[in-house]
Amino acid sequence: MKKVLLLVPVLCCAVLVPLSAATESELYSEAESYYRAGNYLLALDTYAEFIRTYPLSDRVADAQYRRGVSQFRLGRFREALSTFDEVERRYRSTRFFDYIYFWRGVAYFRMDGYAQAERALGVFLRNVSDPELTPQAYLYKAQAEIALRDFRGASADLEALLDGHGETESARHGVILLMYAYLQSGRYQEIGELAASGAREELSEQRRELFDLYTAEALWNEGREQEAEGIFDRLRSAEQQVASVAYRRLFMAAAQRGELDSMEALVRQAESRFAGTPEALEDLWIQVGVESYQQGKVDLSQYFLNKVWSLPDKARMRGTVPLYLAELSIQEGNPDRAAGVLEQYLAENPKDADLTRLKLGDVRLLQGDYASAGQIYARYLEDHPDSQMYPEALYLLAYSQFRNGELAAALALAEDQLERMTDPELRELRADWYKLAVVVHRRRGETAEAAALLQEYTQLYPEDLDARIDLLKLVFSQKDYQKVVGETDSLRREFPDLGELDPYVYLLSNYLRGLSEIGLKRYAGALEALDRLDGEALEAAGLSAIWPYTLYYQGWAHYRNGDYRAARDRVGLLMQTEPSHPLLPQALFLAGWSSYSLGDYRSSSQYFARLAKMNTPESDKSAFLQARSLLNLRDLDTAAILLRTHYTTRPGSEFADDALFEYAGVQAQLGNTAEAAEAYARLADSYPRSPLAEESLYKRGEVYSAAGLYQQAKDAFYEYRTRFPRGRLVDAALYWGGMAAYELGEKFGAVLHWERLLETFSMSPFRPDALRRTAEEYAERGDQKKAIELYTLLIDEYPEEAVVYSISQRVDELRYSLQGLSDREAVLASIIGAEGGARTAKGREAMIELARLYIYEGSRRMELAPEMLQKVVDQGEPVTASQAQFLIGEYYYRRSEPVQAAREFLEAGYLNPDDTDQMAASIFRAAEMMYLAGNMTDVRELVGRLEQHFPGSTWTGEARKLLEGGRR
After folding, report:
1. Residue 483's pLDDT is what?
2. What gap in Å lies between CA 632 and CA 81, rounded to an integer?
3. pLDDT one-digit tens code per residue, 272-323
4. What value does the CA radius of gyration of the chain take, rounded to a whole number of Å?
5. DSSP code of 344?
């Protein structure tokens, strides 16, 4: 059912359309006839009735367009724009669609909306070519561009107007506008070409005067004053506006030449010419006054502006006069007079003096009356929310609040404007807002916020080098040194010629870069930046104050880079050129320390001596280092005097304990044991919290030990251990305390010291020697087991030391001693064991000596001798083999076996043929054995051998006695 009902209206419409067609045409035709007749009010009403009556008609779109044009013709521009907007949205089918941009553009122009006008007329010109409207569109568009100061764009449109529509009235008006656009663009040659083209002849008389005026202005600006003056002279009789400009130019020309008579004559002529129109004369004086001001002719400017200001009727006076007079007073340093002029004008023009009121606000700023300035700006903003000066006035209000201490209010305005302000034409003002916000943050101590905002600003305004350097300063103050380096890198990249472009920024940025590199401990980078600075360039840039600091930090960077000589040279230049600079103490110290590091102790002592005499934080340390320098020069006596003076006259000095410690050391070197020990003791008593107190007590013991005063040494080491039971030198004190006891003959006391060291300090460097000495004492007391235990521990823990002292051999000796061997037997047995028996010379010698001991003593161990000796003989080494073989003969001799003994002795003689004495002795002993055996035949044969081969030997003489029956 519902679907059927919905069809009824549609069917009704279908039936009614044919019946109402004639009425629709008549109504539309009626509206059109009103429109063509220029009766736009009736046309507007009739088109509206048509649209209401026939909303579905195909002619509604055209009717809407006609409504918009009618509204425009009636001067109802806002309504017209609204209608054209509706046409653009809903009625694009109208055959006049492209024309809405013409009317829209002109409407905007009439409403001073020049940017919108220029855009709309541009669309029209691109889409439509209409013989009537196109010339007008060019003309209006050019006028809008001139209002926007787009003179190049206006020139292009006017040139198109003249080229394509030169016969129209718009073109004749456009010639004058084109000359004006050329004049404003500085295109004087084009004006000359127009002047020579004959275009002037097509113009009315009034336009010819403007044409001539612009021609003369072009000549004037080209420096062709004489030609221009000829035209200006002719234009004195032109229409008042043109004549006023001519008089002004003529007057300024005479003023430039200093022709006072001509100036006075021109003044009289002008007063006569404009006598009937005082406003024109006033305008002339104002123009002359303003132009004189712009040319720097202050006296002339004041003369003419004061002529105007002296007129009684200030209520109708242009605000230009008080504005310029106020500015002149400000330049003279008289803001109070400026305020008086502005206040007088405002009193007579309370409703029509907005710029003057703003200027008064500026003057109040200069006077330091920030509260009044703020009130003036606030009132202006309230009264003129749509003013073009509104953004600037708002900024001045915020600035006044800032200067008046209203930081929160100023910052709130700045932050709001930075968020809202997007108009590119206000770019410079936006920059001011940024700067104000930064200053407010800094005044409030909000360094991080200020830096962040300044960073944002420099990204938007990278060309603002002052801001770039301010950012560097701010970031440096935050100790963000890496960011300083990054910012200076950007500056170098973006402005490779920064040194020539802005020496101040170039030098200061490198200075901050250098200090930041030092902060980052990158000293080579610091020198790269600081070496770009020199004294003359800094002075020329107004930065001479940082030159001494540059020298100092160059020195510091060289020092940290290990170049001590360069460091001393740089701070030396600082001391030479700035002898009274606040950095002098630091420079002296750095020079002294650099000299000290170079081993130039004479220079370092001199630098430190100078600084020690000053009342600075470095004085105490310098006095101490002066003494240290003298110590290195081996001037012990002078150093001792300085050190004693230091700790006695500056007992509270940070280095008093150091000085006392060094003094004690000097006395020790000089052999003054008692005074050295007393000084060490005094340090521990006077400065118990000093890190040197512990070492001083220990050193006291060392001093006594070195002097052989062992009782005092033992007591000193004991005192050290008592006062510093957990000290870092307790193990050393135990060791040397033990040594002192040992030297006193208190061997048991020595062992007690060393055993305590062994129990308590497992990692002490004195442990191996304490082990060895303790073991020796136990061995000396006959406690071989304890000694062996300690020696074994020494071998296990310190194998290298054990080798040095032959500890393994000593252990063997002690073990043999435990087995009942004599001391000498134990020693020899340990050697044989350590050397692996007869494998080494030392082992063979020990075996020979031990065998000899057994044989000659005739002990029960004599039977061990032949086997040991035979092992030596078997090694085949001639010397020891012959000695061992000889002892075998002695063994058989002791056993009363002379024949066997003779054989062994003879064998010994032939084992080492190089030793003739050994050989002779062996033959003699063999002969002696055969004598004992009663075998005289063999005796004679052996004696004959001796006489033959060894006639001069003593053994041969002894052998002859055997034959004579004698005995040795």
Report:
1. 94
2. 97
3. 777 777 777 777 777 777 877 877 878 778 877 887 787 777 667 777 888 8
4. 60
5. H
SS (H, E, C) 554-597: HHHHHHHCCCHHHHHHHHHHHHHHCCCCCCHHHHHHHHHHHHHH
DSSP symbol at 368:
T
Torsion of CA 589, 591, 595, 596, to 10 degrees: 10
Question: Both ends of the chain: CA-CA distance in Å?
Answer: 171
| Amino acid, single-letter form, for residue 882 | S
Instruction: Write the CA distances from 704 to 396, 672, 696, 717, 905, integer angstroms.
Output: 84, 11, 13, 10, 62
Contacts of 248 (CB under 8 A, 6+ apart): 284, 287, 288, 291
Residue 647: exposure state from Cβ atoms within 10 A (0-12, 13-18, ≥19): buried
Q: Please, is 743 exposed, middle or buried when counting C-beta atoms within 10 Å of its C-beta (0-12, 13-18, 19+)? A: middle
Taking the whole predicted model, whether its pTM rises above 0.70 is answered as no
C-alpha distances (whole Å) from 483 to each of 239, 449, 476, 518, 554 are 66, 15, 8, 14, 21
Task: Please choose, from the candidates 599, 598, 647, 605, the residue with its C-alpha nearest in 3D space to the C-alpha of residue 622.
Answer: 605
Q: Enumerate helices (H) and strands (E) in the chain, giving the number of each.
A: 54, 0
- Per the CB < 8 A criterion, the answer to whether 145 and 110 are in contact is no
Report residue 295 as tokens: 């040319």
pLDDT in tens, 654-687: 889 999 999 999 999 999 999 999 999 999 999 9
Separation between Cα atoms, residue 663 and residue 681, nearest integer Å: 12
Q: Please answer whether residues 41 and 74 qualify as being in contact, where contact means their C-beta atoms are separated by less than 8 angstroms.
A: yes
pLDDT tens digits along 741-782: 999 988 888 888 998 999 899 899 999 999 999 998 888 877
- Give the CA angle between residues 874, 875, 881 to the nearest 5°: 75
Contact criterion met (CB below 8 Å) for 833 and 813:
no
**Structure token pair of residue 218:** 């072009």
Q: CA 103 to CA 226: how far, in whole Å?
A: 46
CA–CA distance from 77 to each of 6, 36, 108, 116, 900 (Å)? 42, 20, 8, 13, 158
Whole-number pLDDT of residue 823: 65
Cα–Cα distance measured from residue 833 to residue 843, given in angstroms and rounded to the nearest whole number: 8
3-class SS at 966?
coil
* CB-count burial class (<10 Å; 0-12, 13-18, 19+) for 74: middle
How many whole angstroms separate alpha carbon 624 and alpha carbon 654? 10
Residue closest to 607 by CA, chosen among 620, 625, 631: 625
- Reading the block at residue 195, the tokens are 């002047």
Burial 303-323 (b: 16+ CB within 10 A, else e): ebbebbbeeeebeebebbbbb
Instruction: In whole angstroms, give the CA distance from residue 747 to residue 742.
Output: 5
Angle at the Cα of 706 from the Cα atoms of 705 and 709, rounded to 5 degrees: 45
DSSP sequence for 267-320: HHHHHHHTTT-HHHHHHHHHHHHHHHHHTT-HHHHHHHHHHHHTSS--SSS-TH
**Cα-based torsion angle of the residue sequence 783, 784, 790, 794 in order, rounded to the nearest 10 degrees:** 150
755 residue type, one letter: E
Angle at 518 between CA 512 and CA 523, to 5 degrees: 120
At residue 707, what is the residue type? Answer: A
DSSP type of residue 98 = G
Local structure of 236: helix, strand or coil: helix
**Cα 658 from Cα 646, distance rounded (Å):** 10
Residues belonging to the chain: 968
What residues have CB less than 8 Å from 25, skipping those under 6 apart?
A: none
CA dist., res. 469 & res. 488, Å (int): 9
Question: Which has the closest alpha carbon to 319: 375, 358, 291?
Answer: 358
Residue whose token pair is 């043929």: 913
Q: Model confidence over 876-890: pLDDT tens digits?
A: 899 999 988 888 988
Question: What are the structure tokens assigned to 38, written together?
Answer: 């220029």
